[in-house]
């Protein structure tokens, strides 16, 4: 067993939503890795985050896990794919959490954040990776001071450190994600880049003018 596999096994917990996980695997739906989920949920416990904004619902897997942290957690989640949105709503109904989640069928790039019920305790960015910077710039202002901003897939399954990439689209994706990661690292914000799952970036939002 390699060291990262050992860490992954230590961070992972018994699956709470096996049917959702099975659906994701069968239909090849990208979802958060189990160890990254547990690290995120741990930070929710530490900060007491209850009002969550999620960019990228997919089939509702990560939203269900966030809702499982506490009965007081509420999630506003945005998804642009109608089939994924419909499936997520069905799973929310199955697990009887529909009253605590507001699933929005829209492209997050077309939403006026002022229309959302902010401020939020936490923002999870887990949508199209080339738009990480856009989502961060447009939605992080609606996270309260002291809140969390979490970005998944910052390693792109190792693509982010590859030098020779033949595909133009993959190369462009790598460049955008890498540029965003480096911008955050150089910003002075209180942040951590964690090698769990496909890479998890955790940022603590500070008051204006305060640096780490």
UniProtKB/TrEMBL annotation:
InterPro entries: Cation-dep_OMT (IPR050362), SAM-dependent_MTases_sf (IPR029063), SAM_O-MeTrfase (IPR002935)
UniProt GO BP: methylation
Keyword Repeat: no
S-adenosyl-L-methionine among keywords: yes
Entry superkingdom: Bacteria
Keywords associated with the record: Methyltransferase, S-adenosyl-L-methionine, Transferase
Record GO terms (molecular function): O-methyltransferase activity; S-adenosylmethionine-dependent methyltransferase activity
Stated name of the protein: Uncharacterized protein
Organism encoding this protein: Salinicoccus sediminis
